[in-house]
Structures are given as C-alpha cells and as structure tokens.
Amino acid sequence: MLARPQEISNTKQVHPSVTSKAKRLMDIVGALVGLAITTLVAIPVAIANRFDDQGPLLYSQIRCGLNGKTFRIWKFRSMVKDADRLKHLVHNEAKGNIFKNRNDPRITRVGRFLRKTSLDELPQFWNVLKGEMSLVGTRPPTVDEVMKYERHHFQRLVVKPGITGEWQANGRSTVEDFEQIVQMDIAYQEKWSVAYDFILILKTIKAVLVKDGAF
C-alpha cells in the first residue's frame, strides 16, 4: 500500500463499482475478448519492432490502483529502451501531477502509431482479468505522482483504475490539466453505473477509431 493511510481513510472506502458483480462480469468478458485481440496484434507489432529499434515487445511499470495498492501494469512498448531514465530530459507540457509531451523524443516510430491508435494499451486486458484494473475507471497514476498528491487527489483511488474512463472518453490526450482530470474522475464516481460504463466504452471506441485527441 503506497498511499498514506490517513489520506485514504478520509475518502469513501468502498465505492459501489468495486463490489459490483455485474461490473466484474463485464470486465472478465471484455478482458477475454481483449486478450484474444492482443494476441493477434502482438505478432505484427513484434515484427515492426524488430525493424525499428529491436527492443522488447512489452513494457511494464509500477502503478497505483485501488486504495493506493501498487501493481505492475503492462503495455506494448512505445518508447526507446530505458525511457524512464531519460524522463528528466523531456519537458512536461501538462499541468500538475501528470506528464505529457506531444513530441516526446523517446517515442519510437512504431510507438507513435501504437499510441495514435491506442493499441499500446491492449496488454492491460491482462491487468483487468487479474482484477487489478477495470475496463472503465480512473487513470492509473505512477508512484511518483501519488507521492505528490494533495488531500483531495486521493479520492481518485477509491475505484479501480481503468483502461478507459471519463477523461479518455471525453477528451483523451487533449486534457492536460491534472485538476481537470481529478474533477472528471470524481464526476465518474458520482455518475457510475454499469450502463454508464458501457456508454464510456462505446465513446472510447469511437474516439479511438477517429483518432480523436490522441498523440
């Protein structure tokens, strides 16, 4: 558990989405379908990487999930090897406890395509199947981001992180202010229902297909 206990204790301990059997069933079904797609996509991505920078196919990072519990998230690698060590050399164009740069030089040619199409996110279906994530939730923050949280930011951690969520479906990478993301995450918690999750999934699929707000 990474998040400070006294901060978590000041938020709602159990959000209805966490204990919803219907949401978990949707997660399992979606994860199984998603992993089947991931397996098919992995082959051409691996071949493309072979001709690009010959690094590993997958990238993993420790993120913070429900109530601050850490887990290892998986993605198709979109940056050069050891990109995390080079982060301090790249200017952060976002505001607050997130990091974004539209022309991040660490992104590979294959990685730029993966991010534009959101294909880099596909391996996270494994995290969903394991129960560490959900199809829909909040953006899973990094450890260093959570270490800088103010009291009201911890409200984000009372639901499982999701592959998609309020800000991905309604803005994606165009939202560059962390406080706005927090507001959207909290609004999601207040509006949550299984039906609303389904709506956000459909909106995310539409945004991905038209490449709306991605970079």
From TrEMBL:
What UniProt keywords apply to this chain's record, in alphabetical order? Membrane, Transferase, Transmembrane, Transmembrane helix
One GO MF term attached to the UniProt entry: phosphotransferase activity, for other substituted phosphate groups
TM ranges are: 25-47
Record-linked InterPro entries: Bact_transf
| Ranges where the Bacterial sugar transferase domain occurs | 23-209
Under Pfam families, the record lists: Bac_transf
Report whether Protein biosynthesis shows up as a keyword of the record. Answer: no
What family does the database annotate? Belongs to the bacterial sugar transferase family.
Report the protein name in the record.
Sugar transferase
